[in-house]
């Protein structure tokens, strides 16, 4: 039996901790925050509505192994997420852009996918070569849809104009020519945990061989007495930024109370204007989130910012066009690879944006290899 340290009680840390404990190891989990569940942390607010502190977390995947693993710790409420975009004139249209969005924006009456494809071809402004995100979007959907749905969002989120971003970043964006309004339509499993994410984490970490210490930041001295450490802290911070800093975008969350009678029935509304905010979430509109009947509900509005302006809350690794930060990360990772006791895991340990199902899958793969070797 090894004595192991896990840094971070988000999905990366919790999956590692549980699998290591199941394999017979003794595991201590520390987290600098005062709660478990990392960025998936949710709780029931005094007004009776469940809220996700770090923005809406919608579970979606086509990975049966991940669903099977997580289902040991939670039941599920089926939920297929839909998003609308708010236009300047107050109308709300489906996002990703689909046939109904095109009809609403252009005042057309297109009926079929063929109609939509022909229409998009007629408004497209083909460019050659296609280098920037703007080149790609203008070439496929033209200026009006690009400037309405993609340019302001990109500016707010990344502080970049589409002309400064690589085409690869937007190539995977969906433009639909049918009427399907589902946000994650290609994923076979879409649901929310019945009692919330935090309750699922409590069950994951509830094991005789796991102990959890909160409000505890990692320090190098903590390694004494441990055989190995699985670490989800930012890798550059671990090395005291000596090769340079890996930057992130962050989000400020503005929460407000509203009378239930006047609240939106839609969970997520994206803004298309040039203001600082990207979207709003009405928590009561998600299944299982109105835990107690009350007259008030909650809304969260998101405002992207630099992580340095938001108490160093690191959310989205920055992908620059020259991949400068990716190569900086690789230099840190190469150094970490020479240490057979310290393993960097999760979003900030590996400097990549990962959805929940991806971080769970990566963690299951990583930890099972370690267990097989040990
Ligand atoms: C705004 C937002 C919305 C999202 N929405 C979705 C969604 O809808 N669907 C989806 O699948 N995914 C979503 N995600 C992604 C999801 O949050 C991640 O996949 C998941 O949280 C990654 O888990 P993690 O363990 O790698 O990181 P985290 O959840 O961030 O956990 C890392 C933990 O490590 C702790 N830690 C860091 N440094 C130290 C230190 N020095 N000492 C001790 N502890 C430390 C932190 O406090 C944190 O609790 C969203 C992310 C964001 C930011």
Automatic annotation (TrEMBL):
InterPro entries: UDP-GalPyranose_mutase_C. Its EC number is 5.4.99.9. It holds the Pfam family GLF. It comes from the Bacteria. This is UDP-galactopyranose mutase. Residues 149-353 form the UDP-galactopyranose mutase C-terminal domain. GO terms for molecular function: flavin adenine dinucleotide binding; UDP-galactopyranose mutase activity. Transmembrane segments: none annotated. The keyword Coiled coil does not apply. Keywords: Isomerase. It comes from Rhizobium wenxiniae. Gene3D superfamilies: NAD(P)-binding Rossmann-like Domain (3.40.50.720). Signal peptide: none annotated. It is an enzyme of class 5 (isomerase).
